[in-house]
Amino acid sequence: MRVKICCIANPQEAADAIAFGASAIGLVGEMPSGPGPISDEDIYAIARTVPPPIATFLLTSQQTAQRIVAHHHRTKTNTIQIVDELVGREYTAIRDDLPNVKLVQVIHVTGEESVDEAAELAEHVDAILLDSGNPNLAVKELGGTGRRHDWRLSRKIVETCGRPVFLAGGLNAENIREAIEGVQPFGLDLCSGVRTDGKLDLRKLDAFFSAVNLL
After folding, report:
1. What class does CATH assign to 2-213?
2. What is the dihedral of CA 52, 57, 62, 66, to 10 degrees?
3. Three-state secondary-structure class, residue 129
4. Where are the domains of the chain?
């Protein structure tokens, strides 16, 4: 089971996550709300410390191809996680400019319409990531809520979208068996579930990976 540890704040957190077994780390750019945003300079510096084949995800709230490409040029990660709607479905424009960078589209699972949205967007990206935000609020929630969404809908998306699916939103050592068995995702994505007072908690990290490795 692939695990992405998100909201990485510094090179030490990245190294700790990888040492426990993370196959990807998430580096959060500017967001309208939520935990973990760091500067583009810090994202660039942390990404440089991560050895292959670990994936480095830039979480970007930009909504146009031009702005997303520019954000990537400032950070140089190997993967872009688009956390909001991409205006005009300009995925081809991003791929033309960044042919070697993987694209992951976040779907905020709010209802049955999310199943159709995932199926539509999956053909444009390398993977789908299911989260529990709400981009329709006055101040958008685009991740890091620590909330579960309806995992029955997540399972439908896994079964129908035709792409690898990461599951995020309220995951921790206590519920990970239920999540994996119920959703059957390609990978898992955590932020708050392995943190205490905003800092990566090595005991929680150990408990989580121990639970995953037992499955």
Report:
1. alpha beta
2. 20
3. strand
4. 2-213
196/189 Cα distance (integer angstroms): 17
Whether the ω angle into residue 32 lies within 30 degrees of 0, i.e. cis, is no
pTM of the model: 0.95
For the stretch 2-50, pLDDT in tens is 999 999 999 999 999 999 999 999 999 999 888 789 999 999 999 999 9
- The amino acid that residue 155 corresponds to is R
User: What values do phi and psi take at 78, rounded to 5?
Assistant: -95, -5
Query: Which structure tokens are listed for 210?
Result: 């121990």
Tokens coding 116: 């159709």
Q: What is the DSSP string of 119-155?
A: HHHHTTSSEEEEE--BTTSSS-B-S-------HHHHH
| Sequence-distant (≥ 6) Cβ neighbours of residue 38 within 8 angstroms | 9, 27, 28, 29, 46
Helix (H) or strand (E) holding 113: helix 113-122
* Interatomic CA distance for residues 205 and 78, integer angstroms: 24
Place of tokens 């583009």: 40
Distance from C-alpha of 104 to C-alpha of 57, rounded to nearest angstrom:
9
